[in-house]
Amino acid sequence: MTFYWLNTPKSMIKKIAVFILFFTCLSFTFTNNFKELVLQKLEAYTNDFPEKIYVQTDKPYYTIGDDIWYAAYLVNGINHTKSGKSNIIYVEIINDKDSIVSQKNSMQMTLALLEISK
After folding, report:
1. pLDDT tens digits for 43-71?
2. DSSP at 48
3. What does 97-118 look like in DSSP terms, one character per residue?
4. pLDDT digits over 3-36, tens only?
5. CB atoms within 10 A of CB 88
6. Which of 4, 13, 53, 66 allows an S-S link to 62, with CB 3.0 to 4.6 Å?
7. What is the dihedral of CA 101, 106, 110, 116, to 10 degrees?
8. Do 43 and 57 belong together in one domain?
9. Domain containing 64: what range?
10. How many domains does the chain have?
11. Three-class SS state of 52
């Protein structure tokens, strides 16, 4: 069994080695640019953070005429601390036909009451 690379002239092996070395160095250049790009995106994401709303209700199921007591918390989506970005939470109760039954605007971190009606 003979190996092709053993039969090639030494100058050809040197050219192949230089070619591989060149592309290896070039790949590290792309990696550094990629690293910088990822760091820029992460910094932009943390500066313009998403918000999350957590809603806590007094019971899991309601019928017509029941009062819905809920507490709503608007938090920073990254570290889950109180968000100062928005102050109003819009709450809508939607029935099984996708119609809005009730609407309420709440300030963040407050306890509120909604009533389900026909």
Report:
1. 887 777 788 888 888 888 888 788 888 88
2. T
3. TS-EEEEEEEETTEEEEEE---
4. 555 556 677 778 888 888 887 777 666 656 777 8
5. 9
6. 66
7. -10
8. no
9. 51-115
10. 2
11. strand
